[in-house]
Structure formats: structure tokens, C-alpha cells
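fwd from M.: "can u put these together and see what the complex looks like"

so here's what she sent:
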Amino acid sequence: MRAHDDHGPDRLSPRNGAAVIEETIPDIVIRRLPVYVRTLRELQSRGATSISSDELADQIGVTAAQIRRDLSYFGRFGKQGKGYDAERLAEEIAHILRLDRQWDVALAGFGNLGQAIVHYQGFVPASFRIAAIFDRNEDAIGREVDGVVVKSPDEMTDEIARLGIKMGIIAVPAHAAQEITDAMIAGGVDAILNYAPVVLRTPARVTVREVDPVSAMQSMTYYLDN
Amino acid sequence: MRAHDDHGPDRLSPRNGAAVIEETIPDIVIRRLPVYVRTLRELQSRGATSISSDELADQIGVTAAQIRRDLSYFGRFGKQGKGYDAERLAEEIAHILRLDRQWDVALAGFGNLGQAIVHYQGFVPASFRIAAIFDRNEDAIGREVDGVVVKSPDEMTDEIARLGIKMGIIAVPAHAAQEITDAMIAGGVDAILNYAPVVLRTPARVTVREVDPVSAMQSMTYYLDN
């Protein structure tokens, strides 16, 4: 069974489950877990209690085999064919992902993209709050958005350190992205969501996820007219 | 060597290379190719001609082994240790991805996100042009952006068919995303970039890439304070 080869044991002892999980869940699985939480909660909101891997796979649009392989880390919550306890599974995965608290996030860049990010209603329910905003534009500096005042990037390192912010969003032009990233990390940021079309150089301790719509589009043209 | 197990032959006969490539390149590799093209062109713009997999790996921030494994599909452009011809490799990959032409794209949603997308300067150099814009908001309908007039979603299917558009961007709220997607596909769209936090149901012939910043952020909190 591939779950064993790829991901280690597919059951956890209740006692030291968390520790085992942190050691054994590969990043590719971690990346999928948020979609499982979101989908499980959607199904709950529609009254579902027990969810089979087939139902979940159908909702998410992946194979039931992958769902079972990924959720095998949470094997004690359900057995293949028996179905998972939707609420407990969603809560457990959210806990594993540390989503049972709110995370303050620093946003760098208050242009069209930055403003779209600030006004997006999905962050708070997802456990995030834009707690600091930075932009070089003099017209933007001093503006207040939901109680957050836009500041100059020159203040970024100190402000991030003062607020204890661990996550940042890079929504500045490509040419400014590395400098802004360095300033964020100097302030204590360990996780960065990068919208700039550049590969950021960061210390090993820092996690970076790219939001790269252009590359996504360029990888779809391959399939057009095929 | 994993390249053989995962990706089939790592050399192509010059004669039917393209056909072989289309048969043998896995999607995960296709997704990485645009980054290679972008990076190779950046290196060229700085005067580089021959690039080693180590240099490319350093620029992109992945392992040289992965670069060699992926680029082994283009083995005739370079040998391990010898370096790749940057210009020819970039052109060949761009050709494989069908980026040696311009693609018209339909945008659904002209809120903050849609406006950020429309004003993004990176699409044209990346071979894309926003050729149609749709929004339900009466204030948006009729507005002209770079020669494109914002139209009602009610006109979307006909307009997309009339313009022969094959790619669409979903930048509407989650609750409207599926309906908008269906209308795009009815007009002839075969590739969709989806910003809405929902899994779209589409025919098998349609390629969908998700832009899911919230899930990306939720998969990084796992590593914070570790």
C-alpha cells in the first residue's frame, strides 16, 4: 500500500499522535489539508456528519485513493468504507495546521492587488488577520483600513517585530520583492506568501509559497487544442 | 535513475521530439516549465548563453537533480555538467507550452481582484491578453479598460464564442463561480484559472488551475514555531 511507502504509518497512537504526525506528514500532503478542512466544513454546514472518502473525493475533485492515503494519517477518525466523522476530522486537521487560533499577517504592497487582499472577506474565517500594511506610495501611507494604518516599508522590520507577526504577504513589484522580503524576515516573519514573479532567497527556516497565476496559465496552454 | 521510472525516456529523437514530449511529460513537470522559461530569459537578459543545471537550480531555488530530471526531456539541448543553451532551451520550452503566440483571455469579475488582474503588466510578455471582461455590477458594465468594454455575464457565452477565447479567469465570489464557469465553458473555454475558493466541476477536456492563497497560508502555519 503506497501510504506506507510514501508517508510512513497510516495510524497514530492516540498518546503521541501530534508528534508522530509532525514527523511523518510530507509537505505535499500538508498542502492539501486546508482543502480537506474547508470541504469538510462545507459538508457539515449542509448537515453531513459522517463522510466517506468517496464523497469527499467527489466534492474536492480528486481520487478517493488519494483522500484515503492522505487521511490515513488520521486513521483513528475513520476506516476505509466506514466514513469519517466530519466534525472531528475537520477539527483535528485544523489543529494539526494550527488553525485553531488567529494569525496576524503583514501585507507589503497596497496597489490593486494589495487592496484586493485587504478587502478579501475570506481571511478571518480562515484564521488570518491583516494586522500591518506597508507601501512606498506617499498617497497610501497614513491611510487607515479596518483600523490598520498603512506605513512606509522603512518601518516594516520594527513594526513586524513589535507586533510579533510571523507571516507576511508580498504584493509588491518584482524588482522590490527581495528587499521587502529581507525586511520582513529581519522583523521575525517565518512564512511568506509571495505574489511577485520572482524566486525569493530566504533562510531555511522560512516557508515560502508562491502565488504564480502567470505560470499557472502558461502551464495550461500546453493542453489547449490537444 | 528516477527520470526513467517517473518520466519515461530522458532523450528525444530529433525527428518526432514534439510528439514524444507531449506523450511523456507529466503534468507536474509541465507546471514547472514556465518557471524555467522565465528564469532562462532572465539569465539571458543578463548576458548568459550557456547555463548549467546547478546555475539554473540556484536561480530557481530547487535542486539541480530536479532540474536535470525535468530538462532531461530536452536532453538534446545539453548534457549534465556541460550546460544548456539558454536561448534554445527557453525557445523550445516556450514552443512546447505554446507560448510562441498570444492567447486571448476572458476575465470574469471586475472587483478589486479583477482590476488588479487587468492592470497587471506581466500578462502580455507572458503571451496573454485580457480580451473580454465581465461583471454583474451595473457600475462596472460599459466601462472601457485598454480598449475592452466590461460586459454583463449574460453576454459571456456568446462573446467568448464570438472571439474564439479558449482561456478564462474566474475572479468572482465563490457563490457565483460555478455558474460563471459553466457559461465560460459553454462559450468554448478549455482552460480556467480559478481564484474562487471552490472546486469547480468541469468536463474532463477542461484544464483548471487553482489560485488559492488562503490554503497556501493555511499550509504554512503548520511550520510556524516548529
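replying to her w this: Chain A touches chain B through 61 residues (CB under 8 Å).
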